Amino acid sequence: MTIHDKYRVLQENLKALGSVAVAFSSGVDSTFLLKAAQEALGDKVIAVTASSCSFPKRELEEAKVFCEKNGICQIIVESEELDIDGFRQNPKNRCYLCKHELFEKIWEIAKENGMNAVAEGSNMDDNGDYRPGLIAVKELGVSSPLRQAEFSKAEIRELSKEMGLPTWDKQSFACLSSRFVYGETINEKKLGMVDKAEQLLLDMGFHQVRVRIHGNIARIEVLPGEITKIVEEKNRMKIASKLKEYGFDYVTLDLLGYRTGSMNETLEDKEIKK
């Protein structure tokens, strides 16, 4: 199927839902899904955005702006995952704990607003990595329209550009809790350190970044093509100085560069397949 064929399938599947609450983070996938849902269902769509300490303020503001500009009803829900039993200890199923709590809240909002379904924006690429959050999606009967229409990330970006969506070339994003090595305690202070560090790198013009945290050590990931830029003396010294100011003791650069789910590299194959 061409991407336009897939988009027609997506539209048909969304129309079949009748009405839907879309979990909206302002990322590439959920923005594409939300706009497609609006085209398919008109005002029978609401966007639900979670606000928490692991969700940067810039992302929340971008979500608000998009909904206001496109005339989409948005509901913001407080989803403080640090209050979930066991979450702070950062177990390997951390994402499951968070998604289960979040989608339970979104279902409540959906029912209160007369929506028939809840949808989220995972795509086919997510099938190839450790994604315990997708277990919660299945358990709670949340729809995954982009996977159902077999959209890849690249295809979503291509159609997003064609549709004039501002997110077509936006960096991929995952919640800040994913920057912690499994088993390391997650707290508000360290989430703030990571948030400020990544915002600094974005403000300096780096396109795709991650600041992984190992104790008080920062492990920076940027695109391989931007490694020469980050090690230029002016940039290197500014980043090291600022990150130490934010609370890191040491600042390191991952020579492999940015890749999705690098924290999962420490998991055994049998754990990933669970």
What key attributes describe this structure?
274 residues; alpha/beta; Rossmann fold; Alpha-Beta Plaits; 2 domains; 4-stranded parallel beta sheet; 3-stranded mixed beta sheet; 11 helices; 7 strands; globular; disordered C terminus
What order do the helices and strands come in, and which of them pair?
Layout: H1 3-17, E1 20-23, H2 28-41, E2 45-51, H3 57-70, E3 73-78, H4 94-112, E4 117-119, H5 133-139, H6 145-148, H7 153-162, H8 188-203, E5 209-214, E6 217-222, H9 227-230, H10 233-246, E7 250-253, H11 269-272
Parallel strand pairs: 1-2, 1-4, 2-3, 6-7
Antiparallel strand pairs: 5-6
Could you give a quick summary of the protein structure above?
With 274 residues, the chain is α/β, with parallel strands linked by helices.
